[in-house]
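FIELD: query
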Amino acid sequence: PQAAGGPGRRPPRAHGIDSRLECCVGLAASNWSGSAAARSMETGAVAYGLKLKARCVTGVPANSDASRFWAATLAVRDKNQIHLIEYNEERETAQAVAVYSHGREVWDLASHPREEDVLLVLDGDENATKATVCRCRAPSGDEVPLSTSKLCELKTRSASSILRKVLWDPTSGGGGGSSQAATVENDGLTLWQIAEGGATATSTCSSGLEKGGVIRDAAWGSASRTSVHIAAERAIMCYDVRAGQQGVSIHISAGGARSVDANPVTSHLLASGGDDGRISLWDVRKPATPVLALPAEHGHWVYNVKYNPLHEQLLLSGGTDSRVVLWRLPSGSDICAGTEGPANGDGATTSPASPRSPQAFGRDGNSSVVQKYQQYEDSVYGVAWSSKNPWLFATLSYDGQMLLHLVPKAEKYKLLM
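FIELD: result
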């Protein structure tokens, strides 16, 4: 598809594990500084530069006192780093709390839900990927350089497997207790129990997942946290953690599923982004068709979709068209009420023949595009909401440019009224 952003704009580029050679080009340090930066009057964003190529950013749920994010670099020839970044709300600046050296390219990060200094890191090179539980201890005085310490490694199921995603169970405890995690490979899923003594694989699943094609993304389910949703080339597959087996499968005929996230309030709703630049909302109880199809605001892959952790009406999407879109959706109950079909013989409702039309999107005042962010020079691979401030989110483009935005005040007040 044609790149969004008008004529003369560089066409979008995808930098994936399957196209690692692209990462060897253009690794000169970015012009963005790693020091504190004030909010730009022109864009309304606060900038922080990682100086190297990067593609993963995540919030820090274990810290409720400050708006912090983890971000990591993906350089082939340079030494990589993992940054802990804090946003100062009074000064409207972003600054590094600590920067840790890390040897290999980091493809994904997951911050422990109860321990701020514990990370699940997916790293690797053109030959192999691995998942490691690391501790990033707080700096002492002027100590430099800082480095991560390995607690344990989560092995792949085979030497040829390529890891795609690492996840913490959001209900995992802290304080040295046992935690549950998941590693998602190109052809399967493994659940892990992690304690001080190391990591133990508790269940694996690969049978049936191959029908969806190559796995690209995954997200832990909301509410009861008993499922992992897996996005693949041709399907979204829901894995039942308690039963240890695959559950609902959602077939996707066009665009595939490049990204997926679970609604934090309405547990049976999912959002997915596709290679066709479109975003769809799905009800896992009625998986035949999406319950809402959003208009095509991306001109290339939708690499990330993220629900706001508190307000299900807010959704972020980032893509390889160098664009981020902030959406306002109807509530989960409104979406489901508006798409239920006639009752069947058992009194249950059936799916409509087609999803809610994109042409109707925004007419009822309950759904719209809040804002489009197009000040990026490269593919946007990372988007993340703050765990402390529900109106703050971070975006990360492949050139190492991290921007922090606030939800527009007008939109905030609409949701709070």
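FIELD: remark
Confidence is low (pLDDT under 50) at residues 1-11, 17-35, 340-354.
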